[in-house]
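WARN retry 2 of 3 for item q-0093 after timeout on previous attempt; input resubmitted unchanged.
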Amino acid sequence: MVLVYVPAGDFLMGASSADPNALENETPAHRVYLDAFWLDSTEVTNAMYSRCVADGKCAPPTADTSFSRSSYASQSTCAGYPVIYVSWQQTQDYCQWAGRRLPTEAEWEKAARGTDGRLFPWGNQNPTDAMANLCGSECRMEPRDPGINDGFLDTAPVGFLPGDSSPYGALDMAGNVAEWVADRGQADYYSVSPKSNPTGASAGDTRVIRGGVFAIVPRGARLSARSFLLPSASNQYTGFRCAAIAGP
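OK item q-0093 returned
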């Protein structure tokens, strides 16, 4: 895995109440300071995850299918695609095996959008055709955006759409699959979040999911969007990437 470096400093996290697409759990927008860290440049792939399984440190994905494929994780043709059907604990196990950890929610968001509060990795404009793997005219789900067509009914190879690149060079943070992060879920956490290196709620049954996915339209791929899942859950829409604190 290639890692990208995110320098120390503050950034604007969350959504403005003036954003017509913002949900209550995305507000208020607030400035957060983070120490420097490294982040995987792409989502963890089937091939990468299979090495941890082979080493006996990770459980296999809970299913071998994907949205449009009857066989996925075990297929050599899908080796470079993001691993899916992994629970929060499975992602923890992989990152620990790889010598890293899951990113915090704040780390994920800063790596995705930079310091200026942009809506998407590339800026504030909606994605153009094939800029990110989202639900366009090719999509079999509703709602869909007929103005875009990325050519994929399902997941894409990681890093395949270079337009979905953050200010730090992290890829696929607006599309492809959503991603587990370390934090516990709490809808009103931003109103009590510390200003420096927040790590999420101290209690709660769910964990946070961040990032867009092939099954949603652009408004759902805004980088402030957040959702919550039970840590035991696994599905065809969610993968992950790992992070590491930068040394002195």
